[in-house]
Amino acid sequence: MRLIKYMVLLCAVVLALVGCSSDSAGGDGGTKKEKKGGELRVAVPSEPPTLDTHVNTTTISSNIARNIFETLLTFNSSGEIQPMLVESYKEDGNTIEFKLRQGVKFHNGDEMKAKDVVASMNRWINVSSSGKETFKGASFKEIDEYTVLLEMAQPTSTAALVLAYSGGEAPTIMPASVLEGKDPKEKVGEYIGTGPFQIKEWKQNQQIHLTKFNDYSSREEAGDGLAGKREALVDDLYILFVPDSSTRVAGILSGEYDAAMELPIDSVDQLKGNKDIELKSVPRELLLLYFNKKEGLFTNKVAREAVDAAINKEDVLKAAFVNPDYYKTNHHVMLANQESQWYSEIGKDKYDFHDTDLAKKLFAEAGYNGEEIRLMTSRDYDHMYNASIVVQEQLKKAGINVKLEVYDWPTFSERRNDPSAFDITIITNKGKVEPTSLVWSRPDYVGWTESEELNGITSKIRQAPSLDEARGYYDELQAWFLDFRPAIKMGDGDMLFAGRKTLSQLEDVDGLIFWNVSNSK
């Protein structure tokens, strides 16, 4: 099997929260005898709209769902693509052959076989944007019970990278019985996977309760990033929906929560002062302002240019992430810590540019005549809300009548898909392993980007013979982004998380990992 070494966001930064002992175990159990059993209580800022990974892009959905579902491939901490549900895979031009592991059980007791992989992956190709865009014209077919073949319309340099990604719209494997006979576009209601945890209960507006899957078929290699051995060391995993950030902070300080995600940067000193807590941050988020390009004023590119001229990007970053230690001013569309693979100088000299008078002139040219502009946000994520407040003020200085509309996260997640519901919105997106997967480029994501020129550039990147050659087209993508302005990128931000020192470890690889984590409390 050919390993593709690729230093990416997901695996370049693997941070561990370790317990008080200096011999804390790694993901493979290490030298420390892990305590097994008990529970792990994790506070998160929002409730996921669904756990159907094929159709959902939200961070909270993917972070929870990857404990339940698994992918054919994954990444280790060095950025190498590794097998997960396969024994091996072989790329040959426009095909990839996968040899499946035998004896892998679903949570319903059935063994995973080729028919399940074919049903899952063909559905994913047809319903997920990642699948439709990267694998247009491709399909999986069964060779025998434990062998499947991916046939692509042309060789695709990014194919294995996309298949290994476990974030939004992850290509996870489900039983064929759950999918067959149903409209592929209908969300799955039964969450049955092969992961170390299985779902026991979902209490709306309260929590999701996962339990250890006793028949889980772990890999034997040492745990490394998202690869290798996975073991549910706790019997019960509670994901608690806690929208108020101050409540998450208070709960991790008191011990009500064992871990907490998306903590506010202004709580750093308070959290660092507690000897029972380990606090870490990881660069993971792209802060973007999205335009509704399907209806209203911002179908006009000149209006989008006007907003860009009005905004001081670093002021927005400061509002969102408070402390310069936790954000980076970054002009290009990938994360700064991915620059060994993806970097462009284009636009670097214009990052700091903002001109209120020019913004007023451009708004007039675009035909703006004082109508209300709806800036939609959610208080469930402090950085989004605080950034929105600053953008509102900056646009008001340019003479724009901006109304801030604030919703809880589930409502926001629903309304952002409705072109009649907003004009602009600010969202943090997780970085992706390669630029053609960035969600602002999609016609079905917030903002509804449609561009034949963009399609041509992404095709060049995907169909390049190698990743080294693919990165040669990154300048073209960056130039198009700055000209078309499907969104405005403010910069990069860190995600702050904390765990009690009773935990043996807590890692973040594109989200917190809950397997291989024990709790000694």
Molecular structure report:
It is a single chain. Helices cover 26% and strands 22% of the residues. The protein is an alpha+beta fold and 521 residues long. It has two domains: 9-276 and 501-513, Periplasmic binding protein-like II (D-Maltodextrin-Binding Protein, domain 2, 3-Layer(aba) Sandwich), CATH 3.40.190.10; 283-493, Roll (Dipeptide-binding Protein, domain 3), CATH 3.10.105. The strands form four sheets. Strands 2, 9, 10, 11, 12, 13, 14, 15, 16, 17 and 18 form an eleven-stranded mixed beta sheet that branches. Strands 5-6-8-7 form a four-stranded antiparallel beta sheet, covered by helices on one side. Strand 15 (373-378), helix 12 and strand 16 form a beta-alpha-beta unit. The radius of gyration is 23 Å and the shape is globular. Residues 1-32 have low confidence and may be disordered.
Distance between the amino and carboxyl termini: 42 Å
The secondary-structure class comes to alpha+beta
At the fourth CATH level, what is the homologous superfamily of the largest domain? Answer: Periplasmic binding protein-like II
Task: Please state the overall shape, judged from the principal axes of the Cα atoms.
Answer: globular
Q: Helical segment tally?
A: 16
Mean pLDDT: 90
Number of strands: 20
Strand content: 15-25%
Radius of gyration: 23 Å
Helix content, binned percent: 25-40%
Q: What quaternary form is this?
A: single chain
Q: Ranges with pLDDT <50 over ≥5 residues? A: 1-32
Describe the sheet with the most strands. Answer: 11 strands, mixed
Fold-level CATH name of the largest domain? D-Maltodextrin-Binding Protein, domain 2
CATH architecture of the largest domain: 3-Layer(aba) Sandwich
The CATH top-level class label of the largest domain: Alpha Beta
User: How many domains make up the coordinates?
Assistant: 2
